[in-house]
Write a structure and sequence with these properties.
8 strands, mainly beta, 8-stranded antiparallel sheet
């Protein structure tokens, strides 16, 4: 089972590397990297195999190039990233992904679990 929590990502492409943070919470993904690229989407896990599928939209700010060699553009733009990750993907083992702009190697590390309380929220 994919733990809810905050994950550090490090990545490397053909022209550079970087890092970022993702929050995974009950099937939703939200995050950002050091270049200001925002990541939003969802994930699901196969109960039998433990394989995890990510469906993410990366939104790149104006003036930011990608480590995949994609040059900066004059305005913000976005593209989809669909990935199949192995069970235990956050164990520190590099995972290679294919994007429409080329391959990228990612390393995921769980930094902090976020266990959700059951029932209604406590009164304030």
């Amino acid at each position: 089972m994919v733990p809810n929590g905050f994950y550090k990502i490090t990545y490397e492409g053909s022209t550079g590397s970087g890092f970022g943070m993702l929050a995974l919470l009950s099937g939703l993904i939200s995050g950002i990297d050091e270049a200001g690229v925002a990541y939003d989407g969802e994930y699901g896990e196969d109960d039998l195999t433990g394989v995890v599928q990510f469906h993410v939209r990366a939104t790149i700010p104006a003036g930011v190039g990608l480590v995949l060699g994609t040059p900066a553009k004059d305005e913000a733009w976005s593209f989809a990233i669909d990935a199949v990750l192995p069970p235990g993907f956050a164990s520190g083992t590099p995972v290679k992904l294919r994007t429409k702009f080329g391959p990228v190697t990612l390393v995921f590390a769980l930094l902090r679990r976020m266990d959700l309380p059951s029932g209604p929220p406590p009164p304030m």
